[in-house]
Amino acid sequence: MSLVFRRLFQTSTAAFEKKNIFVGNLAWSVKESDLSTLFSQVGKVDSVRIITDRESGRSRGFGFVEMEEADAHAAIEKLNGADLGGRELRANLAEPKEDRPPRQGGFQQRPGGFRGGNRDGGNREGGNRDGNRSFERRDGGNNDRY
Questions:
Q1: Predicted structure pTM score
Q2: Any idea what the Cα angle at residue 58 is, between residues 49 and 31, rounded to 5°?
Q3: Which one of 38, 43, 51, 130 is at 20 to 30 Å from 107 when CA atoms are compared?
Q4: From residue 58, how far is each of 30, 31, 50, 55, 63 by CA, in Å?
Q5: How far apart are alpha carbons 49 and 72 in whole angstroms?
């Protein structure tokens, strides 16, 4: 491939690169169709996704709009600070997720229990409070009965 053709190809594909726009400060009542309608005023919208809470299903107040790069920059410039649903939108380029270490899920068996795993009287030495495992009388009397 010639150098000229390569440069033409790189510049033409870069113009059509998809960009994700982070849209924050959304009212809970805003739907994906509302965001799509708003951003389509600036350019072609490829996808819209509002992030919801796993348990309640309610909007978490932010979402993502995917557009071509040129349209995305124009949309950010025009719609950052715009009013939607009585709230001022925050729009900027989304940053990729950071790599996180894998989570350790599930049940993990741990030593101990209610008393810390000590089953011999509740103190470290075990037995009576003096740390002596024998059954001595405290008054120094005869131990034969014990």
A1: 0.58
A2: 45
A3: 51
A4: 11, 11, 10, 8, 12
A5: 15
The radius of gyration computed from the CA coordinates of the chain, to the nearest angstrom, equals 33
> For residues 53 and 60, what is the distance between their CA atoms, to the nearest angstrom?
6
Distance CA(99)–CA(144), nearest Å, equals: 69
Q: What is the pLDDT along the chain (146 residues), one digit of tens a residue?
A: 454 444 445 544 555 689 999 999 999 999 999 999 999 999 999 999 999 999 999 999 999 999 999 999 999 999 999 999 999 999 999 988 787 788 776 666 666 555 555 555 555 555 555 555 555 556 666 656 54
Residues 32, 22: Cα–Cα separation, whole Å = 13
In whole angstroms, what is the distance from residue 146 CA to residue 134 CA?
Answer: 10
